[in-house]
């Protein structure tokens, strides 16, 4: 009995883990730098997530490449390990895309191991320079992920301004979504006054992050959708509308946090409410990631 794998499904899932790995590295380091509560437990959990995300992300890069090899060879499960086809694809833009992403994740794996080991060797809470270096190294690795978009995807054939909009969009996404779990970790404290100050600082930054995310997303949508009718008459357009609704949902949750929950955050009950809100935000973000991966892998904008 032969096995016919779904290379499309593997490609979508691989892209989800690539996005999550990128977010955990950049967003996690950004959160530690700006909103860290100084607890070693927080640092350990965020660095652990960063390292796990980087390891899974690197495997996802390999899986995505093998899925393309399997698709091209069209010979079942064994087709993913066709050396001739793999060598051929390595010499194409797919090979460049995979290489750039692999380098980025390799940097994050090294970063996670180095800073985790450094934390274990320190007897007191790390100084700010520790977090600055962590963010700088992770930002350097993130550049390779941004450069990889020039070698594949719907936007790779677009103009430089559109590619720049994608870079901004992906960066803001990573900062926002990647900070959610660290914020949830930081909120598990009884120092409510300090927590309120940190979350108010994040709320101010989030206004800029979300604004750039929405503006760059609008620019991308206008470059990929040729008419308003495409939003309602094509599968890609309908999926894009669903993505917009999910983004609106995320923004609405963030607004509730900023204007209602965080200002009242001096009681344990309000902290619990904030944690429930962030968990909901994480669930919506995961749905958004799945849809985004599907849009950029299995679907494409209508061609005219």
Summarize the structure.
By secondary structure, the chain is mostly helical. Helices cover 79% and strands 0% of the residues.
Reported for the largest beta sheet, the result is:
none
Number of strands: 0
Distance between the termini: 42 Å
- Give the helices and strands as they follow along the chain: HHHHHHHHHHH
Helix content: over 70%
Q: Shape, please?
A: globular
Query: What percentage of amino acids are in beta strands?
Result: under 5%
The mean pLDDT is 83
**Uncertain stretches of 5 or more adjacent residues:** none
Radius of gyration (CA) equals 20 Å
Give the structural class. mainly alpha
Count, helices: 11
Question: Secondary-structure map with pairings?
Answer:
Layout: H1 7-35, H2 40-73, H3 83-90, H4 93-121, H5 128-148, H6 160-178, H7 180-186, H8 192-224, H9 230-233, H10 235-261, H11 268-297
Helix pairs in contact: 1-2, 1-5, 1-6, 1-7, 1-11, 2-4, 4-5, 6-8, 7-11, 8-10, 10-11
Keyword list:
304 residues; 11 helices
Describe this structure in words.
- The chain has eleven helices and no strands.
- With 304 residues, the protein is mainly α.
- The protein starts with 6 loop residues before the first helix and ends in a 7-residue tail after the last helix.
- The protein has helices at 7-35, 40-73, 83-90, 93-121, 128-148, 160-178, 180-186, 192-224, 230-233, 235-261, 268-297.
- The radius of gyration is 20 Å and the shape is globular.
- 79% of the residues lie in helices and 0% in strands.
């Amino acid at each position: 009995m032969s096995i016919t794998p779904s290379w499309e499904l593997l490609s979508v899932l691989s892209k989800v883990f690539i996005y999550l790995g990128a977010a955990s590295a950049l967003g996690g380091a950004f959160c530690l730098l700006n909103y860290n509560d100084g607890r070693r437990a927080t640092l350990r959990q965020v660095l652990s997530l960063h390292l796990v995300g980087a390891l899974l992300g690197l495997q996802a890069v390999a899986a995505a490449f093998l899925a393309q090899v399997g698709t091209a060879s069209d010979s079942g499960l064994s087709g993913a390990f066709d050396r001739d086809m793999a060598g051929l694809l390595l010499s194409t833009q797919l090979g460049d895309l995979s290489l750039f992403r692999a380098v980025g994740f390799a940097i994050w794996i090294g970063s996670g191991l180095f800073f985790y080991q450094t934390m274990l060797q320190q007897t007191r809470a790390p100084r700010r320079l520790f977090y600055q270096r962590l963010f700088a190294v992770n930002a350097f690795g993130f550049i390779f992920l941004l450069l990889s978009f020039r070698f594949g995807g719907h936007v790779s054939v677009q103009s430089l301004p559109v590619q720049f909009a994608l870079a901004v969009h992906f960066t803001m996404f990573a900062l926002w979504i990647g900070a959610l779990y660290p914020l949830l970790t930081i909120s598990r404290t009884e120092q409510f006054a300090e927590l309120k100050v940190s979350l108010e600082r994040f709320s101010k930054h989030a206004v800029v992050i979300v604004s750039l995310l929405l503006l760059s997303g609008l620019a991308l949508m206008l470059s990929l959708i040729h008419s308003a009718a495409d939003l309602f008459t094509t599968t890609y357009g309908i999926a894009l509308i669903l993505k917009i609704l999910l983004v609106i949902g995320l923004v609405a949750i963030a607004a509730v946090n900023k204007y209602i929950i965080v200002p009242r955050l001096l009681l344990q009950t309000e902290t619990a409410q904030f944690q429930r809100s962030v968990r909901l935000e994480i669930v919506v973000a995961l749905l958004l990631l799945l849809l985004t991966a599907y849009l950029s892998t299995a679907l494409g904008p209508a061609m005219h």
